[in-house]
Amino acid sequence: MSVEASWDHLRSLLAFARAGTLSSAARSLGVKHSTVSRHLAELERSVGSQIVHRAADGLTLTTAGERLMNAAEGMEVLLRQAQDDIAGRDRLIQGTVRIGAPDAFGSIFLAPRITQLAAQHPALNIQLVAMPRVFNLTKREADLAVALAIPQHGRLLAKKLADYGLGLYASPAYLSRSRPIRTLDDLRGHQFINYIDELITIAELDYLDEVSPYINARFQSSSILAQLHATVSGFGLCVLPYFLAKQYPDLVNVLGREVVLKRTWWLLVHEDQNELSRVRLVHQFIYDTVRQNLTLLQSP
């Protein structure tokens, strides 16, 4: 590589690879669109190869571009490790760690417990993105992610957090005005709550077919928290994680022995980010916190 290929050029390449467009990359770097475009062109001259394929529908990295991006990521990690050493971050953890997590896990389970970690490390900033979606760690959408499945692609490290249980719940108000439910066959004709079918991007969130093939949801939401509140209000029956339903002790676990679902959380980190002391710290905190609360997560 020519000495003309500066770190600023490589940062533009990394920003483009993670953001997907020149304009988004420019915003993330706080520079002009034309600056990122110029940096990519100068990189191509430096390495003597095309690193970006230009088409009518946008830009994509070529094979050479992907190889250069991987090398740039390695340089980025070495730079961060050097900054860690210089700043003594093994002794004083500081900086920002972004956690991606499903909405119930992030909002109800993790957020109330993160206070302990923050109190121990006052220079650590924590960002929690609690949404029912798949987080792309390669594009740095998060430093760590709690996921229901292990992605098939990417340089990711996966560690099993825990299995957790789910059951079928309803409010006393709904059950008092509805036909009795004694068997699975009795579920026909009852009102159900679930995710929006066409917006389910994680197969593990599709619950109702496991309960019964004869039921459909009359109320649907992309948020499990909205589903919870609809259940509490008496709208109908809903599959909820045990730990979430326990927030409302009046909720009734319907057909508790017959409707028992299980899912698994995985803790994901990009192998480059795993070298950072602040990321390792948060990774270990999440793992330890989950393992200390297995009864809450696994028992109705």
Describe what you observe in this structure:
It comes from Methylobacterium nodulans (strain LMG 21967 / CNCM I-2342 / ORS 2060). This is Transcriptional regulator, LysR family. Keywords: DNA-binding, Transcription, Transcription regulation. The chain folds into three domains: 7-87, Winged helix-like DNA-binding domain superfamily/Winged helix DNA-binding domain (Arc Repressor Mutant, subunit A, Orthogonal Bundle), CATH 1.10.10.10; 95-159 and 270-292, D-Maltodextrin-Binding Protein, domain 2; 163-263, D-Maltodextrin-Binding Protein, domain 2 (3-Layer(aba) Sandwich). The chain is built from twelve helices and eleven strands. It has helices spanning 7-19, 22-29, 33-47, 63-87, 103-110, 114-120, 172-177, 208-211, 224-232, 242-245, 277-291, 294-298, and strands spanning 52-55, 58-61, 95-101, 124-130, 144-147, 156-170, 192-194, 217-220, 237-241, 252-254, 261-270. Strands 3, 4, 5, 6, 7, 8, 9, 10 and 11 form a nine-stranded mixed beta sheet that branches. It has a two-stranded antiparallel ribbon with strand order 1-2. The longest helix has 25 residues, at 63-87. The chain is elongated, with a radius of gyration of 24 Å.
Task: Please provide a brief summary of the model.
This protein has twelve helices and eleven strands. It has helices at residues 7-19, 22-29, 33-47, 63-87, 103-110, 114-120, 172-177, 208-211, 224-232, 242-245, 277-291, 294-298, and strands at residues 52-55, 58-61, 95-101, 124-130, 144-147, 156-170, 192-194, 217-220, 237-241, 252-254, 261-270.
